[in-house]
Task: inverse folding
């Protein structure tokens, strides 16, 4: 996949109105204020973690190796951060990522 294929049209500014974790913690379902529902697995969310331990703050280069994130990773807890983001406690002990709405909208997929 080329770099340009990854660029999506800029989505409108949206806010999630509901975040539901599946009972096994593997999948997060989001409902947005424009009525759209999206979801993502814990693995995808962890792979896209924006924190300073996973992305180099100076070069913006991802230092986390996505292949090291197991498919059976779970989310243990979802915490709202103000009204602009969510933070997750992952089963691998990682808790430092803060996911603003725009990032969550970008990395989750429309629910079938
Ligand atoms: Zn991180």
Result:
């Amino acid at each position: 996949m080329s770099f340009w294929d990854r660029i999506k049209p800029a989505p409108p500014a949206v806010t999630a109105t509901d975040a539901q974790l599946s009972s096994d913690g593997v999948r997060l379902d989001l409902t947005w204020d424009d009525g759209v529902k999206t979801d993502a697995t814990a693995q995808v969310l962890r792979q896209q973690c924006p924190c300073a331990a996973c992305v180099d703050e100076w070069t913006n280069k991802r230092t986390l190796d996505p292949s090291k994130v197991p498919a059976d990773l779970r989310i243990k807890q979802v915490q709202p951060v103000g009204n602009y983001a969510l933070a997750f406690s992952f089963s691998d002990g990682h808790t430092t990522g803060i996911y603003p709405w725009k990032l969550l909208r970008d990395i989750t997929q429309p629910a079938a």
